[in-house]
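Following the same procedure, backbone shapes were mapped to integers, yielding the entry below.
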Amino acid sequence: MTNDDPKVEKAGPAGELEPQATPVRGPAPVEAPAPSIVDRTVDVVTRHWPLMALLSSALLLAIAHAFEKFGGLAPCHLCLKQREVYWVAGTVGLVGLVLQRTPLWPRLRMPALLLLGAIFLYGAGLAAYHAGAEWKWWPGPKTCSGGDAAAASNLEAMLKGTADIKPPACDKAAWVFLGLSMAGWNVLISLKLAAWSVLAAFRKSETPA
């Protein structure tokens, strides 16, 4: 018997060495590749989308109020309408966050998340309408005809009703960044939030939150 012989020999009845077959092993099981950072991120975001929608809405409302309070950018009629969308979306997100802790969530998960998607999609359409009015592609609503933007020092007087200041017109962009007004950026943000909502609604499995 040589070292290269894979067979193991044992003594037979007559004392002769008989070869013993080496057991045949099947192929080693192939392990599934570990999920990438992108896959893990998508899973976490979609699994906790009611919370993410609530936080996103609160953040965007805070940014809008910061521009108004510290930047002196008084909101026009369509600006206020777009804020209402985030108030509604935040409320739905909060209700969904509560329902996630109840047995009702598996049945209500898809309708609730699709409702969020519809709300954000409506917000994108409203923002697109506002942006189009700013670009003079179509006229804005009659309620959007206003005066010049109010100064920050006059905002408190406006809220108290002691100042006769008209809200700014909807067809004039008060702030532009990288060629897009606030309404233009809101279109992109709302579309992204709507896409996340639909993606979360059609997740294959629901992992306990």
Q: What stands out?
A: Confidence is low (pLDDT under 50) at residues 147-153. The first strand starts at residue 8 and ends at 11. The beta strands are 8-11, 17-20, 176-177, 180-181.
